[in-house]
Amino acid sequence: MGVDDHQGSVTPDRFPAVARLRFKLRSLDPIELPDYAGSAWRGLLGHGLRRTVCVTRQPTCHGCLLTYACGYSLLFETPPPPGYDQAGFAALPHPYVLDLDPQAPRRYAVDDPLELGVTLIGTAGTQVPYLIHALANAGQLGIGRDHGRFAVDAVLRQSALGADTWVPVYDAGTGEYRQLPASPLELPPPPPAGAIRLHLRTPMRIKRDGHFVAPRDFTLTTLLQPLHIRVQRLAALYGGQPQASEWSRAAALVDTLTLRDCRLRWHDWTRYSSRQGSLMQLGGLIGELTIQGPALAEIWPVLWFGQWVHVGKGTAFGLGAYRLQTLV
Fold first, then answer.
1. Do strands 176-177 and 166-171 pair parallel, antiparallel, or not at all (unpaired)?
2. Mean pLDDT: which of 8-22, 123-137, 266-280 is highest?
3. In 3-state terms, what secondary structure has residue 309?
């Protein structure tokens, strides 16, 4: 599986490079965010980036000569690379996810700090200066019900994937941006007890047989199959070894794993779709569950990496985020 059990590391080319960023913002007006702000932040960031980098001013990206050279197209209208087999897939996974704190406050007074987490995958990591500029411009347009304005004060980047250290890469006072090399990928060893607790931080939306999986229908395959497929596709598109995360390898191990203490519930939230001009009811699973069994070490790399790229539908809004807790 590419894991060195003695070193706790993974071959660096198995997964695509990941850059985790924290945008430190400051409210210039009172701001009131919706119940789940992922859609609002995504819309604001996309709108700001398009205004920043689009030189043709075409109404759509389809047919644009600059599709493969444009930061907006790369992130928000992700085109398939030449020769990529997209058969069976409706859309390509975007090379980013929003990383939002579901416990963050909804209301902010003037000069209150806000934070926006953005995770960039593969070559999308080169787009940080454009994102900073786009978000600073979008901050003048405002966010939330009353379009409260905000400023970008600084940007931090995680020193290594999963580390507790965040390094400043941009300061608004100096206007200086410091490009850092790709974060080293050091995979922690599998839990010695052979059990982990998985906490779903934002709603996980996974479809099976045309319907979203409800708590009563949840199984380990519900989680592990789409997770392996997502990681495999990210590796194929943005750098990595897609064959190392093939579901066919992991599927044979599921029967040796046990799902216990599963405490999931369905959580709904509403977003406004500017494209469709209407409110959309979205929802997914949140809660906790424990995975245990001798095969945990074999699926551990994909489970651990999945924390940073999320799983299911709506990852671009920040949905499908989870964290792992080692049980002793």
1. antiparallel
2. 123-137
3. helix
Q: Rg of the Cα trace of the chain?
A: 20
Q: Can you give the pLDDT at residue 177? A: 94
Overall pTM > 0.70? yes
User: Cβ(121)–Cβ(309) under 8 Å?
Assistant: yes
pLDDT in tens, 77-93: 988 887 776 655 567 89
Encoded tokens for 123? 């070559």
Fold of 188-326: Alpha-Beta Plaits (3.30.70)
Calculate the alpha carbon distances from 247 to 224, 227, 228, 262, 299 in Å.
8, 9, 5, 23, 10
Per DSSP, 73 falls in state H
At 323, list the tokens.
């964290």
Matching CATH topology for 18-177 and 188-326?
A: yes
pLDDT (average), residues 286-304? 93
Q: How far is CA 313 from the centre of its chain?
A: 11
Q: Could you count the other beta carbons within 10 Å of the beta carbon of residue 60? A: 7
Separation CA 291–CA 220 (nearest Å): 8
| pLDDT band (50, 70, 90) for residue 4 | very low
Identify the residue whose tokens are 């007890």: 193
- The answer for 10, left when phi > 0, alpha when psi is -120 to 50, beta otherwise, is beta
What is the pairing mode between strands 3-4 and 18-27? unpaired
Supply 116's token pair: 């926006």
CA-closest candidate to residue 76, choices 316, 314, 272: 316
- Residue 316 CA: distances (Å) to CA of 60, 97, 110: 19, 5, 28
Residue ranges of domains in the chain? 18-177, 188-326
Select the CATH number that applies to the domain covering 18-177 from these four: 3.30.70.100, 3.40.50.2300, 3.30.70.1890, 3.50.50.60: 3.30.70.1890
